[in-house]
User: Fold this.
Amino acid sequence: CSMVETSLPFYFGWFLCPTQQEKLRNMANEFLSAVGSLEAFKEHVGDFAGEAEKEVNLQQYFQDKGVLHCTTKFCDYGKANGAKEYAEKQVVRESYGSKADLVLTALFLTPRTLGAQVSLTEAQLQLWPEDAEKEAVQSADLPRGSRAHVTLGCAEGVDPVQTGLDLLEVVLQCQQGDKGEHVQDLELGPLTYYGKGVWMVKLSEPLNTPAIFSSFYG
Ligand code: 2AM
Assistant:
């Protein structure tokens, strides 16, 4: 019936509890300060700023995109492919409002986005759309769930959908055997540079984050 179609949300996802959001934002700030102060970063600053600028303030460079969450399905109020089918899945309906413990395994930044990588469990993968990776990268066979992330900020004029695409590029690069260049060990963990302004720290202590599976209407 048409009521079902008009009630589809903007997106479904896991929403971090307020205290966890603060914890993650603090961690992201620590990551930005650490990377921003490295000589190795300053050498590649041209990826972030125009030729004229020699410095970039990463805290100002990335703009906040609101409540921290890990999107499972972008529905666009029903306009996105497979939105209705996803909303009607039994596992989606049964999990709605339930708590999940997300495991955040890395933080990354690129000239476009700042994000956290999420490693989904088998149970959490039940809520992950079949085609999430294929939809983004048709040409490759990427592991299911490898697009899962939390957007922590975007450069001016960049839409948050870009965060998952940036993450998939790193995953693809690693799959193709390019493991990047180990820069140094930060307090958070080992930092790798993947070229073209892409930096990732693998958290030596993954962050376990309680989150609620729900949806956002906006
Ligand atoms: P994000 O998951 O990287 O943060 C509203 O825009 C939310 O839906 C954001 O969280 C955004 O990105 C996500 N989103 C927007 N467009 C999308 C798309 N085409 N595919 C997947 N997620 C999308």
Summary: The chain is about 30% helix and 30% strand.
